[in-house]
Design goal:
- The complex is a heterodimer.
- Chain A folds into two domains: 85 residues, Orthogonal Bundle (Rna Polymerase Sigma Factor, Chain: A), CATH 1.10.1740; 96 residues, Winged helix-like DNA-binding domain superfamily/Winged helix DNA-binding domain (Arc Repressor Mutant, subunit A, Orthogonal Bundle).
- Chain A is mostly helical.
- Chain A contains ten helices and no strands.
- Chain B is an alpha+beta fold.
- Chain B folds into three domains: 78 residues, no CATH class; 175 residues, Lipoprotein localisation LolA/LolB/LppX (outer membrane lipoprotein receptor (LolB), chain A, Clam), CATH 2.50.20; 126 residues, no CATH class.
- In chain B, the strands form two sheets. Chain B has a twelve-stranded mixed beta sheet. In chain B, strands 16-15-14-13-17 form a five-stranded antiparallel beta sheet, with no helix packed on it.
- In chain B, helix 4 runs antiparallel to helix 8 and helix 7 crosses helix 9.
- The radius of gyration of chain B is 24 Å and the shape is globular.
- The chains are: A mainly alpha, B alpha+beta.
- Chains A and B meet through helix 2, helix 3, helix 6, helix 8 and helix 10 of A and helix 1, helix 2 and helix 3 of B.
C-alpha cells in the first residue's frame, strides 16, 4: 500500500498527476510532494548543499518545461520520470571534476564511517573514511553508481530502480549486488594499500 | 537476522550525515519558478542554474552575486572599450534607431566556454539603461549621472558604482550606454563609404520576414536583421573575436514602448545593504596594467591564465573566496576597488590595437622572475617593444620575446 493513499484508497499524488495538466494547484502539489525527495536524493549523492539545490532546481525546471510531453498518468509514472531526470542531472554533475572534488571535500569533512556499521561489511577493524567510500563509489560505472544511489540515497525498490533506469528488475538486483561487492572489495584494499605505502595516496583523489 | 542481504549497506549509507533538510527559501523560490515555468510552456528554463554555474566556476565553490555582476560588467565594459569605424545603406534602419526614445530587447552574452547569460534590456532616452538578469539581478545605469546601481533583490544587496575621471567629451563613446554605443556604431557605418557591408537578403526569423546586413567591422563584426516593412532592427548580433570569443545577441527589439521611468532610478530602495565603489573611467595605461598584475600576484600568488573578462571574473572569484566574502559578508569598498583595478588594468591590454602585436604569457610565470617576460606590445609609432617581466619591471626591446604558449591579445 502506498503510504500516500488516503482513506478513500485514491492516492492523492496520482490524482495530482492527472489534474496537473490543467490545474496549477495540482502542479504545485506535485512539487510539494517530490521536492523533499529529490532534494534529499541530490543532497545525499552530491553532499554539497549548493550543488544539490542547483540540481534540484534544474530537475524541477525541466519537469515544468516538459510536463506537457509527459506520457504517464500515475504517481509512479511521475516518480519514475522525475527520478530519471534527477539521476541524469546528478551524473552530469559528477562528470565534472570540480563537482567530484567538491563532493570529496565534503565527504572528508564527514570523517569516518561508524565502526559498528562498517566492520561487518568490510571485514576490517579500521573504519573507513567517507571520502574513501565516495572515491570508490565514483570509480564504479555510471550505471552502478546510479543503482546504488537510487537504492540507498533515494530509497527506491528494485522495480522502481529498474523503471528509472529502463532495465529489468532482475538486472537491477544483480547489478546492485555486483556493485556492492566491488565497493566492499576495493575499500579494505585501498585502506591497507595506503597504509603499506607509507602514506602515499593510491587513488590520487586529493 | 537480516533477510535483505543489503541491509548492512543500507545502515552504512544511513550513517551518511548529508544535510537533507530542505531550505525553505530555496523551496519557495523554486516553487514559484516551477509554477511560472509551467505556465510559460515548454521553454527550457535553466538560466538561473547556468548563471549560478558561472558563479561557482568563478568562485571555486561560492556563488555570490558580485561575481556574476563582475563578469557582466566586464563584458559590457569590454564591449564599450572596443573601437571601430565603418559602413552602408542601412540608413533608414539606423535613422529609426536613432529616433527611438525608448527600447526594450532581449540580450544574451556568451563568452567562449561559459554558459550563456541572458538579460532583458531597457533604454530610456537620454541616457538611462536597465538590465534585468534571469537570476533576479538588476543593473541600472545613468551614464550622464555617471552612476550605476546593481540590485540583488533576492539578498537585498546593492552595489553603487560611481564613474570618475570620465573623459569630458560629451559625445565620447564612454559616455554612452550599450544601446547608444551600438546605435552610434551603426551611424558610423552608414556614414562611411569605405565600410564593408554585405547584404544577406531575406530570411524568416521567428516567423517574420527579415532583411540582413553583415558589417565586417573590426574588431567587432555585427549582423543586423531588420523588418523590411517597419525599417526597425529586430535583431543585432555582435562578436568580439577575443580570446575569449564573446557573442552578444540583442533580439526581440521593441521601440518607443512606454516604460516606467521609476524603473530607471539609480536610488537604492529601502532595506538594501549598500556597497559603494568608484570606477576610474579614464583611459587605462600600462601603469594600470602592471598594477593589476601586481594585485593578482599578491592575491593569487601568481599570474592569471589570461587578461580578458573571464580572467577578471576568475580573479574576482578567487579574491572573494580568499577574503571570505559571502552572501552574508559583502565586500568592502576597498575590496571592490581591488577587483575594479584588475578589470581596469586588463582593459589596457584588451584595448590595444592588433597592430601593436600585444601578447600575454603570464599563465605559468612565477612572480619575481626578472628573466621571464609576461606581456609585450609595440606602441604606435615605436620601433621597440615594451616588455613587462614577471618581477613587474619593464624593458624596451628591439624584438618581441619568444615564449611558447604566449596568447596574442585581440581586442
Amino acid at each position: 500500500m502506498n503510504d500516500s493513499q488516503n482513506s478513500t484508497g485514491i492516492d492523492p499524488v496520482d490524482k495530482a498527476v492527472e489534474a496537473a495538466r490543467t490545474s496549477r494547484e495540482a502542479f504545485g502539489q506535485l512539487f510539494d510532494h517530490f521536492y523533499p525527495l529529490i532534494f534529499a536524493y541530490c543532497s545525499r549523492r552530491l553532499l554539497v548543499r549548493a550543488v544539490a539545490e542547483d540540481v534540484t532546481s534544474e530537475v524541477f525546471l525541466k519537469v515544468a518545461a516538459h510536463f506537457s510531453g509527459f506520457p504517464g498518468s500515475s504517481a509512479e509514472d511521475f516518480r519514475r520520470w522525475v527520478f530519471r531526470i534527477a539521476t541524469n542531472e546528478i551524473n552530469a554533475q559528477l562528470r565534472q571534476s570540480i563537482r567530484r572534488r567538491e563532493m570529496l571535500e565534503a565527504a572528508a569533512r564527514m570523517g569516518t564511517v561508524n565502526v559498528a556499521v562498517s566492520t561487518p561489511l568490510l571485514s576490517s577493524e579500521t573504519p573507513v573514511d567517507w571520502e574513501d567510500v565516495c572515491v570508490v563509489l565514483n570509480e564504479l560505472s555510471e550505471r552502478e553508481q546510479s543503482i546504488i544511489s537510487l537504492r540507498f540515497f533515494a530509497g527506491l525498490k528494485h522495480d522502481q530502480i529498474a523503471d528509472v533506469l529502463d532495465i529489468a528488475s532482475g538486472t537491477s538486483r544483480v547489478a546492485l549486488t555486483r556493485a556492492l561487492d566491488k565497493l566492499r572489495d576495493r575499500l579494505p584494499l585501498s585502506d591497507q594499500t595506503r597504509r603499506s605505502a607509507s602514506g602515499t595516496e593510491q587513488r590520487g583523489h586529493q | 537476522m537480516n533477510n535483505n542481504p543489503h541491509d548492512d549497506w543500507e545502515e552504512l549509507f544511513g550513517q551518511l550525515l548529508a544535510d537533507t533538510a530542505a531550505n525553505d527559501e530555496h523551496r519557495e523560490r523554486l516553487r514559484i519558478q516551477f509554477l511560472k515555468a509551467c505556465e510559460d510552456g515548454p521553454a527550457p528554463s535553466s538560466q538561473r542554474s547556468e548563471i549560478r554555474e558561472i558563479g561557482r566556476f568563478l568562485m571555486k565553490y561560492k556563488a555570490p552575486h558580485w561575481t556574476v555582476a563582475t563578469l557582466l560588467v566586464a563584458c559590457v565594459v569590454w564591449l564599450s572599450q572596443s573601437t571601430t569605424t565603418q559602413v552602408f545603406a542601412l540608413d533608414e534602419v539606423v535613422a529609426n534607431l536613432v529616433k527611438a526614445r525608448t527600447a526594450r530587447y532581449d540580450m544574451t552574452v556568451t563568452v567562449a566556454g561559459q554558459p550563456t547569460i541572458k538579460a532583458k534590456a531597457y533604454f530610456l532616452a537620454p541616457s538611462h539603461f536597465r538590465q534585468e538578469m534571469d537570476n533576479g539581478y538588476v543593473n541600472i545605469a545613468d551614464w550622464k549621472a555617471r552612476r550605476m546601481v546593481g540590485l540583488d533583490s533576492m539578498n537585498k544587496m546593492a552595489t553603487v558604482i560611481t564613474m570618475v575621471n570620465l573623459p569630458a567629451d560629451p559625445d565620447g563613446e564612454r559616455q554612452k550606454n550599450q544601446f547608444e554605443m551600438i546605435r552610434d556604431r551603426l551611424q558610423q557605418v552608414v556614414g562611411d563609404q569605405e565600410a564593408k557591408v554585405e547584404s544577406l537578403g531575406e530570411k524568416q526569423l521567428d516567423g517574420r520576414t527579415v532583411v540582413g546586413f553583415r558589417l565586417a567591422t573590426r574588431p567587432m563584426p555585427m549582423t543586423v536583421w531588420a523588418d523590411p516593412k517597419t525599417k526597425f532592427p529586430i535583431r543585432i548580433d555582435a562578436v568580439m573575436v577575443g580570446p575569449p570569443r564573446t557573442e552578444v545577441v540583442m533580439s526581440n527589439y521593441e521601440f518607443d514602448v512606454e516604460l516606467d521611468k521609476s524603473k530607471f532610478s539609480t536610488e537604492v530602495p529601502d532595506g538594501y545593504t549598500i556597497t559603494k565603489t568608484e570606477i576610474d573611467a579614464s583611459t587605462p595605461t600600462e601603469k594600470d596594467f602592471i598594477a593589476a598584475l601586481r594585485i593578482c600576484g599578491k592575491e593569487t600568488g601568481g599570474f592569471l591564465k589570461g587578461v580578458d573578462p573571464v580572467a577578471v571574473a576568475a580573479f574576482s572569484g578567487a579574491y572573494m573566496a580568499k577574503q571570505g566574502i559571502t552572501k552574508d559578508k559583502p565586500p568592502t569598498a576597498e575590496q571592490m576597488q581591488q577587483i575594479v583595478k584588475v578589470s581596469r588594468g586588463f582593459q589596457f591590454a584588451m584595448s590595444l590595437s592588433p597592430e601593436t602585436d600585444a601578447h600575454y604569457a603570464g599563465a605559468d610565470a612565477k612572480p619575481g622572475d626578472s628573466a621571464r617576460a609576461v606581456f609585450w606590445y609595440q606602441p604606435e609609432k615605436s620601433k621597440k617593444y615594451r616588455v613587462v617581466y614577471a618581477d613587474f619591471s619593464v624593458k624596451e626591446l628591439a624584438a618581441a620575446p619568444q615564449i611558447e604558449g604566449a596568447i596574442k591579445i585581440t581586442p
